[in-house]
Design goal:
The protein is α+β, with helices and mostly antiparallel strands. The protein contains 11 helices and 4 strands; from the N terminus they run ααααααααβαββαβα. The chain is globular, with a radius of gyration of 20 Å. It starts with 6 loop residues before the first helix and ends with a helix.
């Protein structure tokens, strides 16, 4: 993965790599427009190997598995990785190769398992990443803002959800965690980095805009509605606390903020 440098550097680097620049750029443009979260971590040398294989009508399995391993070890989600591969076949105007998809998934699992537990950790109750993962996503957001000549404070914010209650039994706590995890996916969908900070406290990294407070209000209503439907209203703080938190000026301060919010 390209881990540093601005967009001009990425474009120049891509132009110097083998394979078809036209197909690679169409693939990249389609992925960035619809499914990929961070432009500067899209490229990997396996991208060129995969482009060469599909253009030559050779089996793409080895290259797809290699790319999947790179995605998994870099912390990219499997859904995002598979959606990205589908963008390649969309650019080719061909049906998606099932063998390539399977190989990418196998490679992703291998790459994901190779990462130390402290680097990429998912909460078993919600299925959401933990604060360590979000801290890395924040690092990317701050770096991207700097390269774009703006600041993360101006372009991003955190939506914080607090449903924490004391003295819940293990079953109700697990049921609440699973419900909130699904609800966050329901409200925000793909493309919003999110994490569980502590039992009952969750956070989502969002673009900062006029619609963000309304989105936070929608989250509160859906959380409370789902809790009532599932009989878990008594397992959540009432009223549910949802607010928009401004990011500080520096990434290190943002990571410290995550720790404070989780207390």
């Amino acid at each position: 993965m390209v881990a540093r440098g601005g967009k001009p550097i990425v474009k120049r680097f891509l132009a110097e790599t083998p394979g078809s620049p036209d197909l690679r750029e169409r693939w990249r443009a389609g992925s960035l427009a619809g499914v990929w979260l961070r432009p500067n971590d899209w490229y990997h040398p396996a991208v060129d190997a995969l482009v060469e294989a599909v253009e030559a009508h050779r089996t793409p399995v080895a290259a797809a598995q290699r790319l999947g391993a790179a995605r998994g070890s870099a912390g990219v989600g499997m859904g995002e990785s598979l959606d990205d591969l589908s963008c390649l076949y969309r650019a080719l105007e061909r049906p998606v190769d099932v063998d390539a998809m399977r190989a990418l998934a196998i490679g992703w699992a291998e790459g994901h398992e190779s990462v130390p537990d402290h680097a990429v950790v998912r909460d078993p109750g919600t299925g959401l990443p933990t604060a360590e993962y979000l801290g890395e996503r924040l690092r990317e957001a701050y770096g991207q803002a700097e390269r774009d000549g703006t600041s993360a404070t101006e372009t991003f914010c955190l939506v914080v959800l607090d449903v924490a209650l004391d003295d819940l039994d293990a079953w109700r706590r697990m049921a609440r965690s699973a419900t909130v995890g699904r609800t966050l996916g329901q409200v925000f969908g793909d493309g919003y980095p999110m994490a569980v900070l502590a039992d009952g406290i969750y956070v989502v990294l969002c673009p900062r805009g006029q619609g963000t407070p309304q989105l936070a209000g929608t989250l509160r209503r859906v959380v409370e509605k789902n809790a009532e439907i599932l009989g878990l209203a008594g397992a959540m703080r009432r009223p549910t606390r949802v607010w928009v938190e401004q990011l500080p000026a520096a990434h290190t301060d943002a990571v410290e903020l995550l720790g404070q919010l989780g207390r």
